[in-house]
Amino acid sequence: MLSRLLPILALLLAVCGPAGAQAPVEFDTGPLTVVTRDGTRHDFTVELALTGQQMARGLMHREELAPDAGMLFVFPQRVASFWMKNTLIPLDMLFIDRRGRVVHIAERTTPLSERGISSRRPVIAVLELAGGTAERLGIEPGATVESPALP
């Protein structure tokens, strides 16, 4: 039985690589500003997840995220769902509608969780920041996100 499985295992390793191996994914970066409802502006430099490959990788396998950094996922309008599988740090996920408004925030998501995290309504983007950033900066639903990457 094992002798029949070895060729299959060899083929899987040739196609997928060794367990845990991750092909490098490059991200462009850009400026982003979150404007709270009281008009306070918070500037970030974010990595842009615009392709399927970039979105699939996201912030997986990262051990830290700077307080003024994040990742912006941009896609056609839809109800978005994310999970934290292979994501090692807690994140705040800000779900952004077509007007650039934050409509929902999932704060301090649980690392490595496979539980779905939903936007709850159609959005065009998700901004991921280090866990606790929304609370620390007073970012709540109704804040506005400004970025050249947003349509």
DSSP helix count? 3
The first-level CATH class name:
Mainly Beta
Dominant shape: globular
Flag low-confidence runs: 1-21
Distance between the termini: 55 Å
Can you summarize the main beta sheet?
7 strands, mixed
Structural class: alpha+beta
CATH 4th-level superfamily = Protein of unknown function DUF192
What does the secondary structure layout of this molecule look like, with pairings?
Elements: H1 2-16, E1 28-35, E2 41-49, H2 52-57, E3 69-82, E4 91-96, E5 102-106, E6 117-130, H3 133-137, E7 144-146
Parallel strand pairs: 2-3
Antiparallel strand pairs: 1-2, 1-7, 3-6, 4-5, 4-6
Model description:
- There is one protein chain.
- This protein is of the alpha+beta class and 151 residues long.
- The chain has one domain: Protein of unknown function DUF192 (Jelly Rolls), CATH 2.60.120.1140.
- The chain has 3 helices and 7 strands.
- It has a 7-stranded mixed sheet with strand order 5-4-6-3-2-1-7.
- 27% of the residues are buried.
- Mean pLDDT is 87; it is low at 1-21.
